[in-house]
Write the C-alpha cells for this entry.
Amino acid sequence: MSKVFPRIGRRRALQGAAAGFVVLGLLLWWLLPLGEDPPNGTITISTGSEAGVYQQYGSELRPQLAKDMPDLKVKLLTSDGSQENVARVADGDADFAIVAADAVETFEFEHPELADRLRGVARLYDDYVQLVVPTNSNIHSVADLKGKRVAIGRPKSGVRLIADRVLEASDINPDKDITASSEGIDTGPELLGNGIDAFFWSGGLPTRGLEDLADSRSFRFVPIRPSLVSKLHAQGGATHYYRATNMPESAYPSIQKGATVPTLAVSNLLITRKSMDPRLTEWVTRTVIRSRDGIGGVVHSAQLVDLRTAIYTDPLPLHDGARRYYRSVKP
C-alpha cells in the first residue's frame, strides 16, 4: 500500500526554499568571498628541506590555493628553514613563509631596522624538538652529548637556533665540546651511527624524514626534561617561546612503543610582509583555514590549524588582510 504524504503549502515551500538558499549562501561565503574576482599574479612561499614538514605543508597548500585562485601562480622555495625564511620575507625574496616564533623574534633582535616589515598571517602548528640516537647509544640526556659527533642543523635553520640553545643550557659549548655537523633532516638520518652519534630535529609530528628512517631501522629519542626548558628560559631573548611538553606516543608508534617523550615545542607561523596586498593576503588566509582538513589528511600537523588560535601570531602583529578575514568570520 502506497503512503500518501501531506501536501506542503506554497508559503511553507517558499520558506523552506528560502532557508535552503540562506544556508547555501553562507556555505559559499565561507568558501569564497562572493562578488569578488580571485586575486592573480605570482607569489613565492619559502618552506624548508625536502624531507621536512614545512616543504610538505607548502606542497599541499599550493593546489588548495589554486582551487580558490586559479590565476594565481604559486612558487615554492626550499630553504634551510626558519632563519632563512624570515630573512627572505623581510628582504623581499619571498612573499610568504613558514617560520618558528623564536626565529622571528631572534631576527627582530638582530635586525631591528627590518622588524616592522614583517606581519603574521596565521599560527599553524607546533614544532617538537626531536633528539635522535641509535637504539644502543650510551646517550641518555643532552648532557651526554659532550664529546660526541652531533648534527645540529643547517646554519640558517630553526633547528640550529634551538640546538645551540639547548646545548648551552646543558653547559655544552657547541663550538668546543662536541664535533658539530650541519646535517639536516634530509641527510642526518642516513648518517646516524655511521658518521654522527646524534642529531637534532625540530619539526611537526610526525616528520616524513623520521618516518622513513623508522621504516628501515630502529632508533630512539633522548628526553629533554622540563628542568632543561627552565634553564632555557633563563637565557632570555626568544627562549620564552619554548614550552615543556611531551611528544605523544602516536607520533612514531614503532619507535616509541606506547611511551611519550619529554621535550619542548615552539609554535609555527605563516608570515608575510606589511606591504603585501591586503586582498591577496585575505584570500590566502581564508584558504589556509578552509583547507585544514584536506591538508591534514596528508600532513598530520596541519590538523592543528584552528580558527580560534590562528590569530595569535606573536611576536608579529596580524597583517591587515588576515585581520580582515578573521573579523569576517568572528562569531
Remarks:
- Confidence is low (pLDDT under 50) at residues 1-8, 21-30.
- The two ends are 49 Å apart (CA to CA).
